[in-house]
């Protein structure tokens, strides 16, 4: 292994996705994947164990999820360099990830050369956001518009997204490793904060915010 190569911790809950990204990253002479993690919890542990130059991470995973993992990694090492790769291209997810401490955010559908460029930029400590997402953020700032879901905590946001996808309280409890009672409490708080009274209104709001497809 070349000493000049940047070390990568690759985090995604789908093994096939990790395999594809690993092949892409290691195809050149700039990067080497020193560890893979299938959950946010494992990512935090592996970061402390391997101290990679860059963490390349999905945002939607069971348990603490990507944002929860970013927060914990940054709490341990404020200079950690994290790039988020996600199927979500709405500015809501980007804002959550960047506020947690990520340096970059690009869609998983990005061209291979765009992904490699993003990893390289983040490795240098530079911010990298996909142009189409950056445009969304700029327009929001320009118009002064706020997303209604900004009032939610990170855990409430995860529960809200899963509810909007049609998941039941028990489903969400399993996915996030929470008790059904805790999920129920989050559900109640979410409805109060967003001023919605039922699941249909919640789903419509999620569609309007771009969190789920119509």
Q: Can you count the beta strands?
A: 6
Computed over alpha carbons, the radius of gyration is 18 Å
Highest-level CATH class of the largest domain: Alpha Beta
Instruction: Calculate the mean pLDDT score and round it.
Output: 87
Helix content: 40-55%
Q: What count of domains describes the coordinates?
A: 2
Q: Which descriptor suits the 3D outline?
A: globular
Distance between the termini: 47 Å
Supply the CATH superfamily name of the largest domain.
Response regulator
Task: Provide the CATH architecture of the largest domain.
Answer: 3-Layer(aba) Sandwich
Q: How many helices does DSSP assign? A: 10
Describe the 3D structure.
It is a single chain. The model has no long low-confidence stretch (mean pLDDT 87). This protein has helices spanning 15-26, 40-50, 65-76, 91-100, 112-123, 131-143, 154-164, 169-176, 180-194, 199-208, and strands at residues 6-11, 31-37, 54-57, 82-86, 104-107, 128-129. The chain has 2 domains: 6-142, Rossmann fold; 154-209, Orthogonal Bundle (Arc Repressor Mutant, subunit A). Strands 2-1-3-4-5-6 form a 6-stranded parallel sheet, with helices on both faces. α7 (154-164) packs across α9, α7 (154-164) packs across α10 (199-208) and α8 (169-176) packs across α9 (180-194). α4 links the parallel β4 and β5 (104-107). Helices cover 53% and strands 13% of the residues. With 214 residues, it is of the alpha/beta class. InterPro entries: CheY-like_superfamily (IPR011006), NreC/VraR/RcsB-like_REC (IPR058245), Sig_transdc_resp-reg_C-effctor (IPR016032), Sig_transdc_resp-reg_receiver (IPR001789), Tscrpt_reg_LuxR_C (IPR000792), WalR-like (IPR039420). The modification 4-aspartylphosphate is found at residue 58. Residues 145-210 form the HTH luxR-type domain. Pfam families: GerE (PF00196), Response_reg (PF00072). Residues 7-123 form the Response regulatory domain.
């Amino acid at each position: 292994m070349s000493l000049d190569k940047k070390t990568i911790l690759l985090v995604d809950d789908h093994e096939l996705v990790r395999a594809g990204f690993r092949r892409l990253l290691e195809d050149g002479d700039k990067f080497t994947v020193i560890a893979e993690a299938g959950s946010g919890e494992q990512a935090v542990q592996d970061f402390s164990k391997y101290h990679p130059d860059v963490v390349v991470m999905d945002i939607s995973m069971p348990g603490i999820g990507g944002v929860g993992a970013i927060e914990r990694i940054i709490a341990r090492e404020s200079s950690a360099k994290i790039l988020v790769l996600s199927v979500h291209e709405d500015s809501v997810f980007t804002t959550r990830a960047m506020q947690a401490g990520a340096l970059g955010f690009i869609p998983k559908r990005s061209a291979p050369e765009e992904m490699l460029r993003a990893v390289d930029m983040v490795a240098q400590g530079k911010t990298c956001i996909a142009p189409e997402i950056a445009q969304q953020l700029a327009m929001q700032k320009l118009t002064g518009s706020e997303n209604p879901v900004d009032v939610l905590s990170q855990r409430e946001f995860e529960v809200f997204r899963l509810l909007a996808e049609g998941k039941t309280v028990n489903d969400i409890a399993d996915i996030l490793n929470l008790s059904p009672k805790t999920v129920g409490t989050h559900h109640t708080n979410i409805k109060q904060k967003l001023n919605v009274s039922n699941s249909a209104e919640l789903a419509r709001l999620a569609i309007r915010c771009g969190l789920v497809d119509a």
